[in-house]
Amino acid sequence: MSDTRKSKSPDLSRRSLLKAGLAAGAVAGTAGAARAGGDPLITEIQDWNRYLGDGVQSRPYGTPSEFEAHVVRRDVEWLTASTESSVNFTPLHELDGIITPNGLCFERHHGGIAEIDPASHRLMINGLVDTPLVFTMEDLKRFPRENRIYFLECAANSGMEWRGSQLNGCQYTHGMVHCVMYTGVPLKLLLEEAGIKTSAKWIMPEGADASAMTRSIPLEKALDDCLVAFKMNGEALRPEQGYPLRLVVPGWEGNMWVKWLRRLEVGDEPWHQREETSKYTDLMETGKARRFTWVMDAKSVITTPSPQAPVSHGKGPLVISGVAWSGNGRIKRVDVSIDGGRNWKTARIDGPSLPKALHRFYLDIDWDGSDLLLQSRAMDENGFYQPSKNELRAARGENSIYHNNGIQTWHVKADGTVENVEVS
Ligand code: MTE
Ligand code: CO
User: Fold this and answer.
1) Distance 45 CA to ligand 1 centre (A)
2) pLDDT tens readout for residues 203-241
3) 8 A C-beta contact, residue 404 and residue 394
4) What is the pLDDT of residues 259-288, one digit of tens each?
5) Residue 164 region, left (φ>0) first, then alpha (ψ -120 to 50), else beta?
6) Which residues face 207 on adjacent strands?
7) Measuring from atom 24 of ligand 1, which residue has the nearest CA?
8) Under 8 Å between Cβ of 247 and 257
Protein backbone atom coordinates (compact mmCIF):
# COMPACT_ATOMS: atom_id res chain seq x y z
CA MET A 1 0.00 0.00 0.00
CA SER A 2 1.83 3.15 -1.10
CA ASP A 3 1.22 6.69 0.16
CA THR A 4 0.13 7.97 -3.18
CA ARG A 5 -2.42 5.30 -3.97
CA LYS A 6 -5.88 6.82 -3.73
CA SER A 7 -7.94 3.72 -4.46
CA LYS A 8 -10.49 3.00 -1.71
CA SER A 9 -9.64 -0.72 -1.64
CA PRO A 10 -5.96 -0.93 -2.57
CA ASP A 11 -5.70 -4.58 -1.62
CA LEU A 12 -8.41 -5.57 -4.05
CA SER A 13 -6.95 -3.58 -6.93
CA ARG A 14 -3.51 -5.01 -6.19
CA ARG A 15 -4.89 -8.52 -6.16
CA SER A 16 -6.67 -8.12 -9.47
CA LEU A 17 -3.50 -6.66 -10.99
CA LEU A 18 -1.56 -9.66 -9.74
CA LYS A 19 -4.13 -12.06 -11.13
CA ALA A 20 -4.04 -10.34 -14.50
CA GLY A 21 -0.22 -10.48 -14.48
CA LEU A 22 -0.16 -14.19 -13.70
CA ALA A 23 -2.75 -15.04 -16.30
CA ALA A 24 -0.88 -13.08 -18.96
CA GLY A 25 2.39 -14.70 -17.83
CA ALA A 26 0.98 -18.15 -18.31
CA VAL A 27 0.19 -17.31 -21.90
CA ALA A 28 3.00 -14.99 -22.86
CA GLY A 29 5.89 -16.21 -20.70
CA THR A 30 8.40 -13.57 -19.62
CA ALA A 31 6.45 -10.76 -21.26
CA GLY A 32 3.63 -11.29 -18.79
CA ALA A 33 6.11 -11.45 -15.91
CA ALA A 34 7.64 -8.16 -16.97
CA ARG A 35 4.18 -6.57 -16.91
CA ALA A 36 3.87 -7.53 -13.25
CA GLY A 37 6.40 -4.80 -12.52
CA GLY A 38 9.73 -6.62 -12.30
CA ASP A 39 9.31 -7.80 -8.69
CA PRO A 40 11.64 -10.85 -8.45
CA LEU A 41 9.07 -12.51 -6.18
CA ILE A 42 6.84 -12.49 -9.22
CA THR A 43 9.44 -12.92 -11.98
CA GLU A 44 11.72 -15.56 -10.37
CA ILE A 45 10.69 -19.08 -9.48
CA GLN A 46 11.24 -19.56 -5.76
CA ASP A 47 12.55 -22.68 -3.99
CA TRP A 48 9.16 -23.51 -2.51
CA ASN A 49 7.78 -23.45 -6.01
CA ARG A 50 10.59 -25.56 -7.51
CA TYR A 51 11.07 -28.39 -4.98
CA LEU A 52 8.68 -30.82 -3.34
CA GLY A 53 7.76 -29.99 0.21
CA ASP A 54 7.60 -32.19 3.32
CA GLY A 55 5.06 -34.98 3.08
CA VAL A 56 2.11 -35.72 5.33
CA GLN A 57 3.03 -36.87 8.85
CA SER A 58 6.21 -34.80 8.85
CA ARG A 59 4.35 -32.76 11.50
CA PRO A 60 2.01 -35.16 13.35
CA TYR A 61 0.96 -32.35 15.69
CA GLY A 62 0.95 -29.19 13.59
CA THR A 63 2.68 -26.04 14.77
CA PRO A 64 2.65 -22.50 13.31
CA SER A 65 4.98 -21.43 10.49
CA GLU A 66 8.57 -20.65 11.53
CA PHE A 67 7.87 -17.10 10.39
CA GLU A 68 5.38 -16.76 13.25
CA ALA A 69 7.94 -17.66 15.93
CA HIS A 70 7.55 -14.23 17.58
CA VAL A 71 3.88 -14.94 18.32
CA VAL A 72 4.25 -16.30 21.85
CA ARG A 73 3.09 -15.76 25.39
CA ARG A 74 5.46 -13.44 27.23
CA ASP A 75 6.03 -12.60 30.88
CA VAL A 76 7.39 -9.57 32.72
CA GLU A 77 10.25 -10.85 34.86
CA TRP A 78 10.17 -8.18 37.56
CA LEU A 79 6.44 -8.70 38.26
CA THR A 80 6.77 -11.80 40.43
CA ALA A 81 9.44 -13.40 42.59
CA SER A 82 9.15 -16.88 41.08
CA THR A 83 7.85 -18.37 37.84
CA GLU A 84 5.75 -20.96 39.71
CA SER A 85 3.53 -18.27 41.19
CA SER A 86 3.38 -15.97 38.22
CA VAL A 87 1.64 -15.01 35.02
CA ASN A 88 2.36 -14.68 31.33
CA PHE A 89 0.30 -12.87 28.74
CA THR A 90 -1.72 -13.62 25.61
CA PRO A 91 -0.22 -11.89 22.51
CA LEU A 92 -3.49 -10.07 21.74
CA HIS A 93 -1.80 -7.80 19.19
CA GLU A 94 -1.05 -10.80 16.94
CA LEU A 95 -4.52 -12.38 17.05
CA ASP A 96 -7.74 -11.81 15.18
CA GLY A 97 -11.30 -13.07 15.46
CA ILE A 98 -12.57 -14.11 18.88
CA ILE A 99 -10.92 -17.49 19.60
CA THR A 100 -7.56 -17.74 21.35
CA PRO A 101 -5.38 -20.61 20.07
CA ASN A 102 -4.70 -23.08 22.89
CA GLY A 103 -0.94 -22.59 22.91
CA LEU A 104 -1.32 -18.81 23.32
CA CYS A 105 -3.79 -18.68 26.24
CA PHE A 106 -2.16 -16.72 29.07
CA GLU A 107 -1.16 -18.76 32.12
CA ARG A 108 -1.67 -17.88 35.76
CA HIS A 109 -0.42 -20.40 38.29
CA HIS A 110 0.02 -20.11 42.04
CA GLY A 111 2.01 -23.33 42.45
CA GLY A 112 3.27 -24.23 39.00
CA ILE A 113 1.71 -26.56 36.42
CA ALA A 114 0.38 -29.84 37.84
CA GLU A 115 1.13 -32.75 35.48
CA ILE A 116 -1.70 -35.22 36.04
CA ASP A 117 -2.33 -38.60 34.42
CA PRO A 118 -6.07 -38.54 33.74
CA ALA A 119 -6.28 -42.19 34.86
CA SER A 120 -5.16 -41.00 38.33
CA HIS A 121 -7.47 -37.99 38.47
CA ARG A 122 -10.59 -37.93 40.64
CA LEU A 123 -13.34 -35.38 41.27
CA MET A 124 -15.02 -35.61 44.67
CA ILE A 125 -18.29 -33.95 45.69
CA ASN A 126 -18.80 -33.76 49.46
CA GLY A 127 -20.37 -31.59 52.17
CA LEU A 128 -24.08 -30.83 52.22
CA VAL A 129 -25.09 -33.54 49.75
CA ASP A 130 -27.24 -36.66 50.07
CA THR A 131 -24.52 -38.93 48.65
CA PRO A 132 -20.85 -37.92 48.56
CA LEU A 133 -19.46 -39.01 45.17
CA VAL A 134 -16.07 -39.61 43.57
CA PHE A 135 -15.89 -39.48 39.75
CA THR A 136 -13.18 -40.74 37.44
CA MET A 137 -12.60 -38.92 34.14
CA GLU A 138 -14.37 -41.80 32.44
CA ASP A 139 -17.43 -41.33 34.69
CA LEU A 140 -17.58 -37.63 33.81
CA LYS A 141 -17.54 -38.34 30.10
CA ARG A 142 -20.79 -40.34 30.44
CA PHE A 143 -22.79 -37.28 31.46
CA PRO A 144 -24.49 -35.17 28.75
CA ARG A 145 -22.03 -32.46 27.70
CA GLU A 146 -22.22 -28.99 26.20
CA ASN A 147 -20.00 -26.75 24.05
CA ARG A 148 -19.77 -23.08 24.94
CA ILE A 149 -17.45 -20.19 24.10
CA TYR A 150 -16.39 -17.96 26.99
CA PHE A 151 -13.70 -15.44 27.82
CA LEU A 152 -11.64 -15.90 30.97
CA GLU A 153 -10.14 -12.72 32.42
CA CYS A 154 -7.92 -12.60 35.50
CA ALA A 155 -9.21 -10.00 37.98
CA ALA A 156 -5.65 -8.58 37.97
CA ASN A 157 -5.70 -7.89 34.20
CA SER A 158 -4.64 -4.22 33.67
CA GLY A 159 -3.91 -4.02 37.42
CA MET A 160 -0.53 -2.37 36.82
CA GLU A 161 -2.28 0.48 34.99
CA TRP A 162 -4.40 1.79 37.91
CA ARG A 163 -2.30 4.85 38.66
CA GLY A 164 -1.20 5.61 35.11
CA SER A 165 0.20 4.05 31.97
CA GLN A 166 2.93 1.51 32.71
CA LEU A 167 3.51 -1.30 30.26
CA ASN A 168 4.12 -0.81 26.58
CA GLY A 169 1.88 -3.25 24.77
CA CYS A 170 -1.65 -4.62 24.95
CA GLN A 171 -0.12 -8.06 25.53
CA TYR A 172 1.05 -6.78 28.93
CA THR A 173 -1.72 -4.30 29.75
CA HIS A 174 -4.66 -6.50 28.67
CA GLY A 175 -3.25 -9.98 27.91
CA MET A 176 -4.65 -11.77 30.97
CA VAL A 177 -7.67 -12.72 28.93
CA HIS A 178 -8.41 -15.60 26.59
CA CYS A 179 -11.48 -16.98 24.87
CA VAL A 180 -11.96 -20.59 23.84
CA MET A 181 -14.73 -23.12 23.26
CA TYR A 182 -15.09 -25.40 26.26
CA THR A 183 -16.57 -28.86 26.19
CA GLY A 184 -17.81 -30.05 29.54
CA VAL A 185 -20.59 -31.26 31.79
CA PRO A 186 -22.93 -28.68 33.34
CA LEU A 187 -21.98 -28.49 37.03
CA LYS A 188 -25.70 -28.63 37.80
CA LEU A 189 -25.89 -32.22 36.56
CA LEU A 190 -23.06 -33.38 38.85
CA LEU A 191 -24.50 -31.59 41.88
CA GLU A 192 -27.92 -33.09 41.17
CA GLU A 193 -26.32 -36.54 40.95
CA ALA A 194 -24.98 -36.05 44.50
CA GLY A 195 -28.26 -34.48 45.66
CA ILE A 196 -27.97 -31.00 47.23
CA LYS A 197 -29.34 -30.59 50.75
CA THR A 198 -31.87 -27.77 51.21
CA SER A 199 -29.52 -25.90 53.58
CA ALA A 200 -26.82 -25.67 50.86
CA LYS A 201 -25.99 -22.16 49.60
CA TRP A 202 -22.36 -22.24 48.46
CA ILE A 203 -19.85 -24.51 46.76
CA MET A 204 -16.08 -24.56 47.09
CA PRO A 205 -14.02 -25.91 44.18
CA GLU A 206 -10.50 -27.08 45.04
CA GLY A 207 -7.52 -27.63 42.72
CA ALA A 208 -5.17 -30.64 42.77
CA ASP A 209 -2.07 -28.46 42.15
CA ALA A 210 0.50 -27.49 44.78
CA SER A 211 -1.47 -24.29 45.54
CA ALA A 212 -4.70 -26.25 46.21
CA MET A 213 -6.63 -23.22 44.94
CA THR A 214 -10.00 -22.78 46.68
CA ARG A 215 -12.80 -20.23 46.23
CA SER A 216 -16.39 -19.87 47.45
CA ILE A 217 -19.05 -19.71 44.73
CA PRO A 218 -22.76 -19.10 45.39
CA LEU A 219 -24.88 -22.16 44.61
CA GLU A 220 -27.09 -20.06 42.35
CA LYS A 221 -24.16 -19.47 39.96
CA ALA A 222 -23.07 -23.12 40.18
CA LEU A 223 -26.55 -24.23 39.09
CA ASP A 224 -26.79 -21.56 36.40
CA ASP A 225 -24.04 -21.74 33.74
CA CYS A 226 -20.90 -23.32 35.27
CA LEU A 227 -19.24 -26.21 33.43
CA VAL A 228 -16.80 -28.89 34.50
CA ALA A 229 -14.71 -28.83 31.33
CA PHE A 230 -12.25 -31.32 29.87
CA LYS A 231 -11.77 -29.88 26.37
CA MET A 232 -10.82 -26.50 24.95
CA ASN A 233 -11.17 -25.70 21.25
CA GLY A 234 -12.01 -29.32 20.62
CA GLU A 235 -8.92 -30.96 22.11
CA ALA A 236 -8.03 -31.92 25.67
CA LEU A 237 -7.31 -29.00 28.01
CA ARG A 238 -3.63 -28.07 27.97
CA PRO A 239 -1.71 -28.86 31.21
CA GLU A 240 -1.28 -25.09 31.68
CA GLN A 241 -5.06 -24.67 31.60
CA GLY A 242 -5.83 -27.40 34.14
CA TYR A 243 -5.63 -30.75 32.34
CA PRO A 244 -7.51 -32.96 32.77
CA LEU A 245 -10.35 -30.97 34.38
CA ARG A 246 -11.19 -27.34 35.14
CA LEU A 247 -14.13 -25.35 36.38
CA VAL A 248 -15.65 -22.80 33.98
CA VAL A 249 -17.38 -19.88 35.73
CA PRO A 250 -18.66 -17.74 32.81
CA GLY A 251 -18.22 -13.97 33.10
CA TRP A 252 -16.66 -14.17 36.58
CA GLU A 253 -13.07 -13.46 37.59
CA GLY A 254 -10.50 -15.98 36.37
CA ASN A 255 -9.37 -16.88 39.88
CA MET A 256 -12.65 -18.78 40.44
CA TRP A 257 -12.07 -21.00 37.38
CA VAL A 258 -10.24 -23.63 39.43
CA LYS A 259 -7.82 -25.70 37.33
CA TRP A 260 -6.90 -29.35 37.94
CA LEU A 261 -10.31 -29.52 39.66
CA ARG A 262 -10.39 -32.35 42.22
CA ARG A 263 -13.07 -31.50 44.77
CA LEU A 264 -16.33 -29.61 45.12
CA GLU A 265 -17.53 -29.04 48.66
CA VAL A 266 -21.12 -27.97 49.21
CA GLY A 267 -21.76 -25.71 52.23
CA ASP A 268 -24.14 -23.18 53.76
CA GLU A 269 -21.75 -20.20 53.97
CA PRO A 270 -18.64 -18.90 52.22
CA TRP A 271 -15.28 -20.29 53.39
CA HIS A 272 -13.31 -17.01 53.35
CA GLN A 273 -10.23 -18.56 51.80
CA ARG A 274 -7.01 -16.64 51.17
CA GLU A 275 -8.04 -15.94 47.56
CA GLU A 276 -11.21 -14.10 48.66
CA THR A 277 -9.85 -12.19 51.67
CA SER A 278 -6.23 -10.98 51.44
CA LYS A 279 -6.35 -11.45 47.65
CA TYR A 280 -9.08 -10.68 45.10
CA THR A 281 -10.69 -8.01 47.27
CA ASP A 282 -10.50 -4.30 46.45
CA LEU A 283 -9.11 -1.86 49.02
CA MET A 284 -11.23 1.30 48.87
CA GLU A 285 -10.22 4.88 49.73
CA THR A 286 -11.86 4.50 53.20
CA GLY A 287 -9.49 1.65 54.07
CA LYS A 288 -12.32 -0.86 53.83
CA ALA A 289 -12.17 -3.61 51.23
CA ARG A 290 -14.88 -4.68 48.80
CA ARG A 291 -15.25 -8.44 48.64
CA PHE A 292 -16.94 -10.89 46.28
CA THR A 293 -16.55 -8.71 43.20
CA TRP A 294 -17.04 -11.65 40.92
CA VAL A 295 -18.30 -10.24 37.61
CA MET A 296 -15.83 -8.92 35.05
CA ASP A 297 -17.51 -5.76 33.75
CA ALA A 298 -17.56 -4.46 30.17
CA LYS A 299 -14.09 -3.77 28.81
CA SER A 300 -12.29 -3.38 25.50
CA VAL A 301 -8.87 -2.67 24.05
CA ILE A 302 -7.52 -1.80 20.63
CA THR A 303 -5.08 -4.56 19.70
CA THR A 304 -3.82 -3.04 16.41
CA PRO A 305 -2.30 -0.53 16.12
CA SER A 306 -0.72 -0.82 19.57
CA PRO A 307 2.83 -0.46 20.93
CA GLN A 308 3.87 -3.96 19.78
CA ALA A 309 1.99 -3.55 16.51
CA PRO A 310 3.05 -0.17 15.08
CA VAL A 311 1.82 1.16 11.73
CA SER A 312 4.44 0.22 9.13
CA HIS A 313 2.67 1.38 5.98
CA GLY A 314 2.33 5.14 6.30
CA LYS A 315 -0.83 7.14 5.76
CA GLY A 316 -3.87 5.91 3.86
CA PRO A 317 -6.14 2.97 4.65
CA LEU A 318 -5.66 1.79 8.25
CA VAL A 319 -7.49 -1.07 9.93
CA ILE A 320 -8.06 -0.35 13.61
CA SER A 321 -9.06 -3.52 15.42
CA GLY A 322 -9.65 -4.75 18.94
CA VAL A 323 -11.57 -6.96 21.32
CA ALA A 324 -14.41 -6.24 23.73
CA TRP A 325 -16.07 -8.39 26.37
CA SER A 326 -18.49 -8.30 29.30
CA GLY A 327 -19.19 -10.74 32.11
CA ASN A 328 -22.78 -9.50 32.05
CA GLY A 329 -23.62 -10.79 28.59
CA ARG A 330 -23.15 -9.68 25.00
CA ILE A 331 -21.35 -6.57 23.81
CA LYS A 332 -23.90 -4.38 22.09
CA ARG A 333 -21.66 -1.61 20.80
CA VAL A 334 -18.04 -0.50 20.70
CA ASP A 335 -17.15 3.13 20.04
CA VAL A 336 -13.68 4.13 18.87
CA SER A 337 -12.08 7.57 19.19
CA ILE A 338 -8.99 8.67 17.27
CA ASP A 339 -8.70 11.98 19.15
CA GLY A 340 -8.47 10.93 22.79
CA GLY A 341 -12.21 10.71 23.47
CA ARG A 342 -13.46 14.00 21.97
CA ASN A 343 -15.29 12.33 19.10
CA TRP A 344 -16.50 8.76 18.86
CA LYS A 345 -17.41 6.51 15.93
CA THR A 346 -19.29 3.25 16.29
CA ALA A 347 -17.04 0.35 15.31
CA ARG A 348 -18.12 -2.65 13.25
CA ILE A 349 -18.44 -5.85 15.30
CA ASP A 350 -17.58 -8.85 13.12
CA GLY A 351 -17.90 -12.55 13.89
CA PRO A 352 -20.15 -14.21 16.47
CA SER A 353 -21.67 -12.07 19.24
CA LEU A 354 -21.98 -14.49 22.16
CA PRO A 355 -22.71 -13.74 25.82
CA LYS A 356 -19.59 -13.64 28.03
CA ALA A 357 -17.30 -14.14 25.03
CA LEU A 358 -14.80 -11.90 23.27
CA HIS A 359 -16.20 -9.74 20.47
CA ARG A 360 -14.02 -8.54 17.58
CA PHE A 361 -14.43 -4.97 16.35
CA TYR A 362 -12.99 -2.94 13.47
CA LEU A 363 -12.87 0.69 12.44
CA ASP A 364 -11.46 1.17 8.94
CA ILE A 365 -10.10 4.69 8.51
CA ASP A 366 -8.15 6.73 5.99
CA TRP A 367 -5.22 7.89 8.15
CA ASP A 368 -3.91 11.35 7.24
CA GLY A 369 -0.57 10.56 8.90
CA SER A 370 -1.03 12.87 11.90
CA ASP A 371 -0.85 11.83 15.58
CA LEU A 372 -3.76 9.77 16.88
CA LEU A 373 -4.98 9.13 20.41
CA LEU A 374 -6.79 5.84 20.01
CA GLN A 375 -9.41 4.74 22.51
CA SER A 376 -12.18 2.16 22.53
CA ARG A 377 -15.25 2.10 24.77
CA ALA A 378 -17.48 -0.96 25.07
CA MET A 379 -21.16 -1.04 25.98
CA ASP A 380 -22.84 -4.29 26.96
CA GLU A 381 -26.42 -5.40 26.38
CA ASN A 382 -27.44 -4.03 29.79
CA GLY A 383 -26.36 -0.54 28.72
CA PHE A 384 -23.27 -0.64 30.97
CA TYR A 385 -20.50 1.61 29.57
CA GLN A 386 -16.80 1.05 30.06
CA PRO A 387 -15.63 3.97 32.27
CA SER A 388 -12.70 6.30 31.75
CA LYS A 389 -9.83 5.71 34.16
CA ASN A 390 -10.70 8.96 35.98
CA GLU A 391 -14.29 7.82 36.43
CA LEU A 392 -13.00 4.52 37.76
CA ARG A 393 -10.62 6.20 40.23
CA ALA A 394 -13.38 8.60 41.36
CA ALA A 395 -15.53 5.60 42.27
CA ARG A 396 -12.85 3.28 43.62
CA GLY A 397 -9.90 5.35 44.78
CA GLU A 398 -6.24 4.68 44.01
CA ASN A 399 -5.56 1.55 46.06
CA SER A 400 -7.12 -1.01 43.77
CA ILE A 401 -5.34 -3.56 41.60
CA TYR A 402 -8.16 -5.81 40.48
CA HIS A 403 -11.07 -5.02 38.16
CA ASN A 404 -9.53 -2.20 36.14
CA ASN A 405 -11.81 -1.94 33.10
CA GLY A 406 -10.92 1.70 32.35
CA ILE A 407 -10.54 3.04 28.82
CA GLN A 408 -7.04 2.49 27.35
CA THR A 409 -5.30 5.12 25.18
CA TRP A 410 -2.62 4.46 22.55
CA HIS A 411 -0.67 7.38 21.08
CA VAL A 412 0.00 6.68 17.38
CA LYS A 413 2.77 9.00 16.19
CA ALA A 414 3.36 10.29 12.66
CA ASP A 415 6.18 7.75 12.16
CA GLY A 416 3.76 4.92 13.01
CA THR A 417 5.22 4.03 16.41
CA VAL A 418 2.70 3.62 19.22
CA GLU A 419 2.99 4.39 22.93
CA ASN A 420 0.89 3.64 26.00
CA VAL A 421 -0.40 6.96 27.39
CA GLU A 422 -3.29 8.00 29.58
CA VAL A 423 -5.97 10.47 28.50
CA SER A 424 -9.01 10.48 30.75
N1 MTE B 1 -6.56 -23.00 39.68
C2 MTE B 1 -5.57 -23.64 40.35
N3 MTE B 1 -5.79 -24.89 40.76
N4 MTE B 1 -4.39 -23.02 40.59
C5 MTE B 1 -4.15 -21.73 40.19
O6 MTE B 1 -3.05 -21.21 40.42
N7 MTE B 1 -5.07 -19.70 39.11
C8 MTE B 1 -6.33 -18.97 38.92
C9 MTE B 1 -7.32 -19.80 38.09
N10 MTE B 1 -7.40 -21.14 38.57
C11 MTE B 1 -5.19 -21.03 39.50
C12 MTE B 1 -6.39 -21.74 39.24
C13 MTE B 1 -6.21 -17.66 38.31
S14 MTE B 1 -5.78 -16.35 39.32
C15 MTE B 1 -6.58 -17.42 37.02
S16 MTE B 1 -6.60 -15.87 36.37
C17 MTE B 1 -6.94 -18.54 36.11
O18 MTE B 1 -6.88 -19.81 36.75
C19 MTE B 1 -5.99 -18.53 34.92
O20 MTE B 1 -6.35 -19.54 34.02
P21 MTE B 1 -5.38 -19.89 32.82
O22 MTE B 1 -4.02 -20.23 33.39
O23 MTE B 1 -6.03 -21.00 32.10
O24 MTE B 1 -5.28 -18.65 31.96
CO1 CO C 1 -6.13 -14.56 38.10
Assistant:
1) 50
2) 999 999 999 999 999 999 999 999 999 999 999 999 999
3) no
4) 999 999 999 999 999 999 989 999 999 999
5) left
6) 261
7) 107
8) yes
The rounded Cα 157 to chain-centroid distance in angstroms is 10
Interval between CA 321 and ligand 2 midpoint (Å): 25
pTM score: 0.91
Quote the CA–CA distance of 357 and 78 in Å, as a whole number. Answer: 31
Q: Specify the ligand 1 atom closest to the Cα of 261.
A: 3
Left if phi > 0, otherwise alpha if psi is -120 to 50, otherwise beta: which for 302?
Answer: beta
Cα-based angle 179, 183, 186 (whole degrees, multiple of 5): 110
Position in ligand 1 atom list of the atom nearest CA 154: 16
Residue 28 CA to residue 272 CA, distance in Å, equals 78
Q: Interior CA angle at 64 toward 55 and 348, to 5°?
A: 130
8 A C-beta contact, residue 320 and residue 365: yes
Taking the centre of ligand 1 as the mean of its atom positions, its distance from the CA of residue 24, in whole angstroms, is 57
* Residues near ligand 1 (Cβ within 6 A): 105-110, 152, 154, 178, 207, 209, 211, 213, 240-241, 254-255, 257-260
Nearest to 223 by CA among 258, 264, 275, 263: 264
Residue 275 CA, closest ligand 1 atom number:
14
Spatial separation of the C-alpha atoms in residues 107 and 109, rounded to whole Å: 6
Q: How far apart are CA 241 and CA 230, in angstroms?
A: 10
What CA–CA distance (Å, rounded) separates 238 from 230? 9
Render pLDDT for 43-82 as a digit per residue (tens, 0 to 9). 999 999 999 999 999 999 999 999 999 999 999 999 999 9
Q: Are 304 and 319 in contact (CB under 8 A)?
A: yes
The span from the first CA to the last CA of the chain, in angstroms, equals 34
> 3-class SS at 50?
helix
Rounded to whole angstroms, the Cα distance separating 424 from 409 reads 9
Tell how far the Cα of 108 is from the centroid of ligand 1, in angstroms.
5
Atom of ligand 1 nearest to the CA of 212: 3
* Interval between CA 382 and ligand 2 midpoint (Å): 25
Say what the pLDDT of residue 14 is. Answer: 35
State how far the Cα of 119 lies from the Cα of 298, in Å rounded to an integer: 40
Ligand nearest to the CA of 401: 2
Nearest-atom index, ligand 1, CA of 207: 3
Nearest-CA residue for ligand 1 atom 9 is: 255
Distance 230 CA to ligand 1 centre (A): 15
Please give the helix or strand (H or E) that residue 411 lies within, else none: strand 409-412
Nearest to 380 by CA among 403, 401, 353, 404: 353
